[in-house]
Predict the 3D structure of the following.
Amino acid sequence: MYGNAAIGEAAIRAGCQCYFGYPITPQNELTEYMATNLSRRKGCSFVQAESEVSAINMVYGASLAGVRTMTSSSSPGISLKQEGISYLAACELPAVIVNISRGGPGLGSISAAQSDYFQSTRGGGHGDYRTIVLAPSSVQELADLTHRAFDLADKYRIPVIILGDGMLGQMMEPLEFKYDAPSELPVRSDALRGAKGRPSRIVKTFTSRPTELEELNWSLFRRYRLIEKEETTYEIYLVEDAELVVVAFGASARIAKGAIRNARANGLKVGMFRPITLWPFPYEKISELTQTTKHFLVFEMNMGQMIEDVKLAVEGKREISFYGRPGGVIPTPSEVLRVITRLYYQKGLKIEK
Amino acid sequence: MKKVYRRPKSLKRAAFHYCPGCGHSIVHRLLTEVFDEMNIQDKVIGIPPPGCSVFAYHYLDIDMAESAHGRGAAVATGLKRAYPNALVFTYQGDGDLAAIGTAETIHAANRGERITSIFINNAVYGMTGGQMAPTTLSNMKTTTTPYGRDTRLEGYPVRMSEMVALVKGAVYIERTAVNSPANIKKTKKAIRKAFQAQIDDLGYSLVEILSPCPTNWKMNPLESWHWVENEMTKEFPLGLIKDTTRTKETTGKRDAD
């Protein structure tokens, strides 16, 4: 199954009731999958909106009504959705936003890139808020994390971003769906569905009293602390004895893994650390690794964005190198292997006899 | 003794914050009277805009959720699609509906979304201090057209209702005003018809209401009522713009196959 289709199927199985999209490459297969498979399901709705701005605001509306809802787009379209994401965060409304990202800035290229790390993890829109950011690195994980995204969104009443890229979206891999579609679509208890048998309710973001907004900011941040504590996830690969740890996420982690396997065959003690949640970022685990590893190599398909988080985690205790290919260029494992090998010898790291 | 005039049940017991002579409070009252009479208070969900009437939720005793500027019709679309049993309406000003939200409005109407828009046209951006709106009249002075709206540079007043009427999904559009008892009565009737179109599942409905903004027009309330009558209605003639509800034909087929 294509990565993009896997997201759609996983969303339907997670009980997604409303999907709102707008065409943009390289995520169109997801919108088309929902048009084919969600639109005719009982109680479900699919709308091809007039813009990404409208699509995210339709998500906002559907989330108000208490249903599981999502939208998807690619980098330039995600920029347009930032307004709505900020409102979702402010109103504490769950939603899932998929970014099958491409090269930027501007219209950029349609090839896979990871240049939206800052946009995804630093809020993107205006105001003091966070979104959970999940970074899958296989088609199986696209499906699994889509399901998890809906659960997290509901659990913490927060917008969740799935940051994939054109490579994952267009890739075909076998996968297994771990859930069947629910027989009844879930509805949140706080759904806005008319004041029947209860007092009328208001969902709002605007207040003329700064102290009231400050209180909202505090309550959001208490929840963000809890998410950091409970939901930080990562994958480690051969780090126990590693002299060099490659830190990479999403598609680039996949490429790095291939390179690391070959490096190990050559006797280089290299491991990999892959954050699965980009926010909350696994600072603690990386900090722990500074005790066992000598050197870090951050590898991204951009000019160096996640490296800032790695630096925050490493706190200057170890040296960090960077290798990146921006613009939608996808490096090969052998290219990354060359980088690893050169760095390994430059730094005089121990070779396994 | 028979009570002939009372606070509508759907109107909260609260003093309006609106300026003296402002049309919002009249429209709020009309809406709540309609909710009571149609007995839909517990089914209605309102989407107020940024602007003076963002605080509509302080007065209307119904479920309400704020929208970003211009996005009312998209938010209402999402809500209605997710929960078709609700009666969803947007409450939007001229800048909101006819400038920043033009795309959202036209396309929601074109899809025949079963929603209603209450469109307050007062020819200025009110809360931000009286800047030029898409509906500002030619030669009219505002804070951003201090020499009067020059149509060569700033374009013409936009007749949004007539534009929306062109799309097939719109089934009922009427322009009214709240500057006289007779017009207020007509406005209420129009609001009622707009909600009826939604209840009957016919398509998109819109009521444009010419509404005085004495503060930003720098007039007293009485002058502003006259200005609506003598100046605004020349550019924005009152009356029915479109009504296909009598045929009871729904817009769009429910199922393509």
Summary: Chain B has a mean pLDDT of 96. Residues 24-247 of chain B form a domain with the Rossmann fold fold (CATH 3.40.50.970).
